Amino acid sequence: MGSIDSKTEEIIFRAARKVFTRKGFDGARMQEIADEAGINKALLHYYFRNKDKLFDRVFRDVVKSTLPQLIGIMNSDMPLFDKIRTFTSTYIDILSGNPEFAGFVFHELSRNPYRLLESLKESGPNLRVLENQIKEAALSGKIEYIPVTHLVVNMMSLIALPFIAQPVIMGMFSMNPEDFDAFIRERKELVPQTIIHSIIKRP
Amino acid sequence: MGSIDSKTEEIIFRAARKVFTRKGFDGARMQEIADEAGINKALLHYYFRNKDKLFDRVFRDVVKSTLPQLIGIMNSDMPLFDKIRTFTSTYIDILSGNPEFAGFVFHELSRNPYRLLESLKESGPNLRVLENQIKEAALSGKIEYIPVTHLVVNMMSLIALPFIAQPVIMGMFSMNPEDFDAFIRERKELVPQTIIHSIIKRP
DNA sequence: GTCTATAAACAGATAGAC
DNA sequence: GTCTATCTGTTTATAGAC
User: Fold this and answer.
1) What's the pLDDT band for B180 if we cut at 50, 70, 90?
2) What was the pLDDT predicted at A8?
């Protein structure tokens, strides 16, 4: 269940992912997906029954292709600062390759939060690990204590929002696409620095 | 041009803003707006001609009701750290009152970036002021230099993303709506702290 | 100005030939 | 499996009565 068997199915699925992640469920058209796949509209229904089911598969695929990597890093026994750097670098790489993913996931989740429960909790992050690292580092005087919630949200924010706000940023700072790419690359260094500076204990 | 004259027009407009900001252009239905306004569908067209024009008015209204305040703070002659604190506090207050605004604006702008040029550049921010403050503070050894772009994006990110990711955050950390409100209130202190700690010069 | 009724266009889904 | 043709329901938009 949930696997891709035939060649055509694969082509359709990729087309659907492209259109859905760009336009969202409401903005996507079955016709556009068919065009993108170079096949007929009827085939979409032959392979995926209806728009909802096709979307569901796409949404799960997007989540599955990104979350586990990030959760893996979060749950690892890497030292705290390394974890922050690796998480940032990996997350930015993922979103650089798929700039629409962040906006897509957040938008669809506020449209229909139920899906979250399934797709997120299937591979839910274990915050205990990170929480203990923070407490330990705080007790040893290495960092200022910060609740896990805020640390995680701060990282997510600094990493994901620039992609969601890409047109705003490009407009506001008169950037072209190359400028924006460079800007994102700079953030691979800057974001971990920002996070670490904000919690590290001063002498 | 662009002003609201009659009572009914005002009621319709508020209903439209509510529905559009929640569902987005593609997800919004003229019927739902009519229902929300307690009037008939035909009246929407009588007052606003079509869906596109109604949406345009709403989008501009949302931008106009938020951006100028933030730009005003950015362009003021407030000291740098005060500016960071005031900007954060004001922005969070705006979004607390209208949690859908951030997701709405960013989503619609990536759907149709043209609108940005008009709505954003009408009251474009003057980054020179902030840029000079950063340079001055860096030269006087008060802070580590940071490009304006990154400083502004960092603030925007830490403030806006939590609202966009609200369902994710509530799911991930098992929060109820009250928990989330408290979480956001905490950020009014935490975000400026994070930003300032990340740039302030260590002894 | 506000309504009901209806037109016109669109989008998702199915039937049936090949 | 893949196509064309078509149906059904939805959604925007207009006509016209009051």
Assistant:
1) very high
2) 96
Cβ contact, residue pair A157, B157, below 8 Å? yes
Q: Find chain B residues with C-beta within 8 A of A162's C-beta.
A: 153, 157
**A74 contacts on B by Cβ (under 8 Å):** none
What SS3 string covers chain A? CCCCCCHHHHHHHHHHHHHHHHHHHHHCCHHHHHHHHCCCHHHHHHHHCCHHHHHHHHHHHHHHCCHHHHHHHHHCCCCHHHHHHHHHHHHHHHHHHCCCHHHHHHHHHHHCCHHHHHHHHCCCCCHHHHHHHHHHHHHCCCECCCCHHHHHHHHHHHHHHHHHCHHHHHHHCCCCHHHHHHHHHHHHHHHHHHHHHHHECCC
In chain A, ranges of CATH 1.10.10.60 domains: 7-60
Q: Which residue of A has its CA nearest to B109?
A: A167
- Which residues of chain B are in CATH 1.10.10.60 domains? 7-58
pLDDT band at B161 (very low <50, low <70, confident <90, very high): very high
> What CATH topology corresponds to B65-199?
Tetracycline Repressor; domain 2 (1.10.357)
Q: Residues by CB within 7 Å of nucleic chain C, which ones?
A: A 28-31, 41-42, 45, 49-52; B 5-6, 8, 39-43, 46
Average pLDDT value for residue range A113-136: 82
pLDDT of B1: 52
Q: Which of B116, B149, B198 sits opposite A173 (nearest CB)?
A: B149
CB-based contact (8 Å) between A99 and chain B? no
Indicate yes or no: pTM above 0.90.
yes
CATH number of B7-58: 1.10.10.60
Examine the pLDDT at B3 and tell me if it is beyond 80: no
Domain with CATH 1.10.357.10 in chain B: 65-199
- CATH dotted code for A7-60: 1.10.10.60
Residue-wise pLDDT tens digits, B114-134 = 766 677 776 677 899 999 999
Contact flag A171-B202 (C-beta cutoff 8 Å): no
